[in-house]
Structure formats: structure tokens, C-alpha cells
Amino acid sequence: MEVAVASLFSRTVACAALVLAGVVAPATTSQAATAPVGFECESEGFHGDPDEPQKFHRCVDFGDGTFTQFDFWCSPGTIWDQSLTTCNHPWAVSPGQ
């Protein structure tokens, strides 16, 4: 149980650090409510959105065998770079990602 709590804490801190650093911006309630359902978590980790280059998702398994999905938007002027699992300038992202 202690290991699961520590892991959950470290994942939460990592996501919060990205938001606080300005690297990512979490989706607002209105964005989440109006966004089409085009992505579903199938594995843990960070995943780019298939329909929105500026959007990505964080999929977390909190130990119950299901995934909780957190939706994020890259900062203005950047898009998701799957090879680096971070937002990047469009000119620096390899085509076809």
C-alpha cells in the first residue's frame, strides 16, 4: 500500500510540475466538455491526440486496472512531439508523429 501511495504521489507531482512550469496547460472544463471523444487510454503514459496536434493525454493506472485520463493542451505555438513526449516547436517535430 505504501508503494502505491508513493507512486500515486510522484505521478501527481510530475503532472503538477508540468502545469506549474508552463510547459502544459490543463484543459478547462469548457474545453473538456466540448471536445469530441477521439482518444481513449489503452496504456499508461503520455499520448498525443490523433485529431488535435496541440493536445495530449496523460493516462494513469491508480492500481485498479483502469486508466484515468488527464487532457492537456500545449502552450501556444507548440505541438505534441511523441518522440520526446513533450510539447515542441512545430519545425522541430518529425513529420508523421
Automatic annotation (TrEMBL):
Residues 1-32 form the signal peptide. Residues 39-96 form the Chitin-binding type-2 domain. InterPro entries: Chitin-bd_dom, Chitin-bd_dom_sf. This is Chitin-binding type-2 domain-containing protein. SUPFAM superfamilies: Invertebrate chitin-binding proteins. Keywords: Signal.
